[in-house]
Every structure is written in structure tokens, then in C-alpha cells.
Design goal:
This protein has about 80 residues and is mainly α. It is built from five helices and no strands. The protein is elongated, with a radius of gyration of 18 Å.
């Protein structure tokens, strides 16, 4: 409900105040040529929505290999090694 209600003001705010350069759906819709718009919107939506399926796949892989007693490995695999 909150996301649905904030979608319109967020769209107007991005167009008014600026946002990511040629990356947000609002900017793509406003500034891309019509013939490239569909491809650009598809790539943007696909790239933005890849996180949840990746966590689910990593989670299944971890459960299949490490078992269900070590769920912390999901975070370790997904976040990867940290450098200091």
C-alpha cells in the first residue's frame, strides 16, 4: 500500500529534482527515443529485479550442499568475501 501510494509523488519528484542519469524508469521514459524505449525499460526492470531470484537460487544451493542447519552460509555466499 505504501509503495503504491508513493509511486506517483516519487515519479514526479525524480522528474522535477533529477535522479540517476538515464538509469531510472522515469528518465528512460522521458528522454529515450521511442524506438529504444522498450529495450531500455526491459533491461532496467530485469536488472533491478534480479536480486530476489538470485537470493532464492543461492539459498536453495546452500541448503542442498550445506544442509538446513547452516543457513548463515546464504548470506556469506551472496555477499561474498569482504576486503579491508
Amino acid at each position: 500500500m505504501v509503495g503504491a501510494c508513493l509511486r506517483i509523488p516519487y515519479t514526479l519528484a525524480t522528474a522535477t529534482f533529477g535522479g540517476r542519469n538515464a538509469s531510472s524508469m522515469t528518465n528512460i521514459n522521458a528522454f529515450y527515443p521511442q524506438r529504444l524505449k522498450g529495450w531500455a525499460l526491459g533491461v532496467n526492470a530485469g536488472g533491478g529485479n534480479i536480486g530476489v531470484p538470485m537470493v532464492q537460487l543461492v539459498g536453495l544451493l546452500v541448503i542442498a550442499t550445506a544442509g538446513n542447519r547452516q543457513p548463515y552460509w546464504v548470506c556469506a555466499v551472496y555477499l561474498g568475501p569482504r576486503r579491508r
